[in-house]
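Task card 7
Instruction: Convert sequence to C-alpha cells.
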Amino acid sequence: MGPVHRVAVGPVKLGYRQFGHGPDLLMITGDTAPMSLWMTYLLEPLSRSFRVTIFDNRGVGYSTDDRSQRLSVPLMARDTVRLIRALGLRHATVVGWSMGGEIGLTMAERYPRAFARLVTTGGDAGSRHTIPPPPGLIGALSDPNNTEAALALLFPPSAEGQAAQQRFIAGYLAVPQEPVSNITLKRQARAENAFLRYPRVWNALDRISMPVLVTNGELDQGVPMRNAQNLARRIPRARLSIYAGAAHGMMFQDAERFAAQVARFAGR
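Output:
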C-alpha cells in the first residue's frame, strides 16, 4: 500500500497512503476505524482502475487531533475536502463507509464542487428519519474490546459470511494496527450521536446534483437497509445496490464485485 505520508489540513495533520494508477479514488473509513482496516484484497482490485488514496480521520492512526475543536461529522467533512485540495485530487470519486458515508454525504451537501461522485457503503444522512440499529447492538459496540460484537456487525452467521470473516481477520492480523485512544473513541461517539439528530444533510438530499451510488448489505444491523433505500429515493441521481446475504462489511465479503461496481460507476 505504500508508505504513510502526512499533510497539514488546518490545525491537524492527516496520515495517508496513495497507490495505483488512474483517476483519483478517495476512501473514507467509518467510526474510529483506521485506514489499515481497508483490506488489501479490496484495495488491490481498486488500484487496478484508480489512483487510490486512503487516510486516517483526525485523532485516528497516523493523524493528529486538535481537541480544542468539538469533533463533528461536518468538521471531518471539511478535513476531507482540505485533504482533496492539498493532494490535488481532481474529479475524484469518493467512497465513504459507515460514518465515512455520513462524511461523504455532508461533503456532497456543503462542498459539491470538491469532487465528482460519491459511493456510500452502509451510510446514512442522519436526522430523525434515520432507522437506528437495535439498542443492544449500540451498547455492545460501545466496548472497544468487544471484538465479537464488531465482527458480528460486519459479517452474517452464514457459511459465506463466516468465510469472509476469517479472511478479514487474517488480513487484519497481517497489518500493524495503530490503537485508538479512549478520548478519540468518546469524541467520535459524540460526533456520531450529534449527526443522528442533525437534519441539515437529510433536508438537502434532494438538492445533491452529483451521481451517487448507494450500497448496503441486506442484513446490515448497524445501518439497516431501509436507510439506503431512503437515500436512493431522495437523491435525484442516485443508484441503489443491495448486497444480498451481506451485512455492514459487505465490501469485504464481496470485494471483487464491489471494486468492479465502483469502477463501472466511475466510467472505468
